[in-house]
Amino acid sequence: MAGPSEIEWTESTWNPVAGCTVLSPGCTNCYAMRMAARLAAMGQEKYLNTTRISGGRAKWNGHIYLDETSVDLPRKWKNGRLIFVNSMSDLFHESVPFEFVKRVFQTMNETPQHTYQVLTKRGELLEKLSPRLNWTSNIWMGVSVENSEYVWRIDHLRRSDASVKFLSLEPLLGPLDDLDLDGIDWVIAGGESGPGARAMEPDWVRVLRDQCHEAQVAFHFKQWGGVNKKKTGRILDGRTWDDWPTEYAAASHKDKLVAAVSPPSGGSP
Q1: Cα 117 to Cα 128: distance, rounded to the nearest angstrom
Q2: Which of 59, 102, 189, 262 has the most crowded CB, counting CB atoms within 10 A?
Q3: Whole-prediction pTM value?
Q4: CA 55, CA 185: separation in Å to the nearest integer?
């Protein structure tokens, strides 16, 4: 799976790795598990045997596929774009060999026209491998945090060598009061969406927004989520929140964000 993305905070996805392992509560309803099962059913080799059926739903089974044919894909994209790396996996999964991670980084290092957004739940491995990787300025690094039990991932991110560090607080499953944003450049927050989506309280988002503004950290509110995320939209207190950590990202996303400003019918919290 690669190419244009409907995710509000990026432009394209690039998946040199496929497959993952359920690690924490934020993984329970991961969209990528459903998507991987669907793509496997369509015969896409890299997603075969990456999921199992449990309770009638697709779940990661821990099998990791290294897609050699995708490692150099961004080199073919001449015009610069924002690229979400491994939307269908985790580059810092314990089963991804370091040499493969290094090759992915080499592609990012050698394509400065692009800006890469790497996201992991495995902060320990990120910190361990960080000194051995080349962190060119076009690589943004983020960690996912779904509730207060996992804020320690942020400490590992802080100790990485990425020039832009961001948090993905999605799915937001609990309040994150008194969040330490020291060294963080960007916060993305959003509710869970799809079948079985767990509810997010509006005040959880407001507290995050206010903390970001106080700390002068860019804040992006992605969605309220729910079973029908298009209906609930992404309006918070009468407007969208679309801050970016760099001027380049804001400029490149201008048209995409304008199209997303109008709330769908049905309102939002």
Answers
A1: 19
A2: 189
A3: 0.91
A4: 39
